[in-house]
């Protein structure tokens, strides 16, 4: 039996940060802040990071481990490539204030997912004014429209080339992308706006 009822899709709400953060890291900092699983593309990210060997950047990895074998492969690859000083695996963070501290000090957010339903961490990063590098496998193509980062179709080659492009950007361009990222969240996912959409929806169906 076919379902004939209308379907309405409403976006998640994201808290927009009121403060504008100024990054002054001696090394620019990219962060991977997500569940550690094969579909997140972390192993490929580590390999691309080694190929580029950009001396001005460091990569920090945060996230709960949902696949221990895969996590072991990632750690082994970091050791094999001898990049443990430029790629840091840190403990997962659940505390809100600690998470905010990490995001407020990041210069770039990377999530090279092979599959993603929404990717709340992407939206949260942009709310802090952080440009995002992610894939077409996430529902975030709007990032290209706002020039808030870079979207690429997942492959090792595309990841390396996209990473090279964004790591080589001047600070002013990264800052411009970060401002665009925050604007994207404000205009499309800000809580007051989303709450109104929910109220309008329930008002309509309860008539």
Q: Give the strand line-up of the largest sheet.
A: 3-2-1-4-5-6
Please give the share of residues in helix: 40-55%
Q: What class would the helix/strand composition place it in?
A: alpha/beta
Uncertain regions: pLDDT < 50 for 5+ in a row? Answer: none
Mean pLDDT: 92
Count of DSSP E strands?
Answer: 6
Give the C-alpha Rg. Answer: 18 Å
Main β sheet profile = 6 strands, parallel
Form type: globular
How much strand? 5-15%
Measured between the Cα atoms of the first and last residue, the distance is 27 Å
What is the chain-wise order of helices and strands?
EHEHEHEHEHEHHH
* Helix count, DSSP H or I runs of 4 or more residues: 8
Itemize the secondary structure elements and their pairings.
Blueprint: E1 28-33, H1 42-52, E2 57-62, H2 68-80, E3 87-89, H3 96-104, E4 108-111, H4 120-127, E5 132-135, H5 142-146, E6 149-152, H6 156-167, H7 171-188, H8 191-205
Parallel strand pairs: 1-2, 1-4, 2-3, 4-5, 5-6
Helix pairs in contact: 1-2, 1-6, 4-7
């Amino acid at each position: 039996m076919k379902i004939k009822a209308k379907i309405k899709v409403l976006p998640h709400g994201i808290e927009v940060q009121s403060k504008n953060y100024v990054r002054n890291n001696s090394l620019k900092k990219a962060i991977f802040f997500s569940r550690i699983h094969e579909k997140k593309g972390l192993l490929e990210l580590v390999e691309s990071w080694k190929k580029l060997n950009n001396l001005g950047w460091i990569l920090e990895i945060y996230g709960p481990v949902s696949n221990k074998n895969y996590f072991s492969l990632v750690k082994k690859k970091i050791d094999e490539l001898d990049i443990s000083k430029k790629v840091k695996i840190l403990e997962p963070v659940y505390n809100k204030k600690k998470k905010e501290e990490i995001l407020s000090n990041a210069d770039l957010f990377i999530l090279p997912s092979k599959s993603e339903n929404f990717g709340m961490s992407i939206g949260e990063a942009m709310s802090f004014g952080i440009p995002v590098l992610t894939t077409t496998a996430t529902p975030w193509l709007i990032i290209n429209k706002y020039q808030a980062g870079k979207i690429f179709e997942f492959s090792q080659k595309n990841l390396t080339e996209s990473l090279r492009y964004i790591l080589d950007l001047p600070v002013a361009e990264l800052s411009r992308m970060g401002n665009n990222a925050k604007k994207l969240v404000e205009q499309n996912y800000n809580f007051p706006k989303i709450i109104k959409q929910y109220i309008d929806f329930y008002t309509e169906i309860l008539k």
